[in-house]
Each structure stands twice: as C-alpha cells, then as structure tokens.
C-alpha cells in the first residue's frame, strides 16, 4: 500500500476507534517518534517511556485528530514532542523536590525576618503599573505560586512570569536609583 493510502487508511481506523490503527501507527511511525522523543529527553529508557505514553495519548485523542488541520505525522510528532517535554519537566520537578532542605547547614532566614513594610514595599508597589502590582501582590503578599496566581487571576502562566520580571525591574529602579544617587553624591564630596 502506498504511503498516502496507508495514511488515509490509518486515519479512517483512528476515527472508527479501531485498534488496528494503533498497531499500524506503531509499525509505521514508532522508530521516527522514538527518535523525536530521544532527541528531547536524551535518555533511551525515558524515550521508550515517552513513546509508550505518546501512543496512549494518541489513542485517547484519536477522535480529536482533524486531517484538515494537520498531516497525520505532524499530529503524532506534536503529541510525542509535547509528551517528551512534559516528561523532562516532571523529572526536573521531582529532582527539585528531592533536595533535603531540613538537613541543610545553611543559615535559614525566614520570610518573617524581612518585613516588606519596613522597606516601604507596599508604598513603592503603588508606583508601578497596576498589572504588575496585582501579580507582585499575589506572589509576595498572598504567598501564591506562579501557577496558583495564574489560575486565581485567570492570567496565562507566561504572562505571570513576564509581569513578575518587569514588575521587579520597575521596583529595582525605585530602590536602586535613590541609593545610587546617594552614593554618587557621597563619593563626589
């Protein structure tokens, strides 16, 4: 069977939720998709896991595939690549959680030790744009994580991160410029 006919046949089987579709997909695309996964995770065992998870997702999402929006391979590629990226991120998160903070010899300064009111944080926060104020308020005064702030404020996570970065930059200007000015005048005399 020619490649275009085979692809059309697989698509029909997927849309019918026929299990033959998975075996045909595996037979014709698994090596390439494994290569995609391996390129992202750079670990053979992890790439195998990604491949297996990808085929499960492909099967579960088979009814969402739309041949008018993307070619079959493009759809398979995206699912596999995204699964690999997710796997990498979750592995990184697990490694971060494994750090034993309790047994650290490093002196710990609690959040209570630095009171934002003593450094006029709330007053200076009012000097920056409202959209940055809202994000900084949620993260620093309400103790939300970036993900929680994203969900609570109904703002995409990437936007939360950008506003945090820009907001901190704006606050830095407020705090550093007067200090810098003081030191420059002090050094001149």
Helix-strand category: mainly alpha
CATH class of the largest domain: Mainly Alpha
What is the count of distinct domains?
A: 2
The residue fraction in helices comes out at over 70%
In N-to-C order, the SSE pattern is HHHHHHHH
Query: What is the typical, i.e. mean, pLDDT?
Result: 80
Can you count the helices? 8
Shape category: elongated
CATH topology of the largest domain, by name, is: Rna Polymerase Sigma Factor, Chain: A
Question: Which radius of gyration do the C-alpha atoms yield?
Answer: 26 Å
Q: Judging by the overall fold, what is the CATH architecture of the largest domain? A: Orthogonal Bundle
Number of strands: 0
Structure description:
The protein contains 8 helices and no strands. It is mostly helical and about 190 residues long. The chain folds into 2 domains: about 5-95, Orthogonal Bundle (Rna Polymerase Sigma Factor, Chain: A), CATH 1.10.1740.10; about 115-189, Arc Repressor Mutant, subunit A. It is elongated.
Strand and helix layout:
Elements: H1 3-15, H2 20-41, H3 44-60, H4 72-97, H5 121-125, H6 130-141, H7 146-153, H8 157-188
Helix pairs in contact: 1-2, 2-3, 2-4, 3-4, 6-8, 7-8
Keywords:
189 residues, elongated, 8 helices, mainly alpha, Arc Repressor Mutant, subunit A
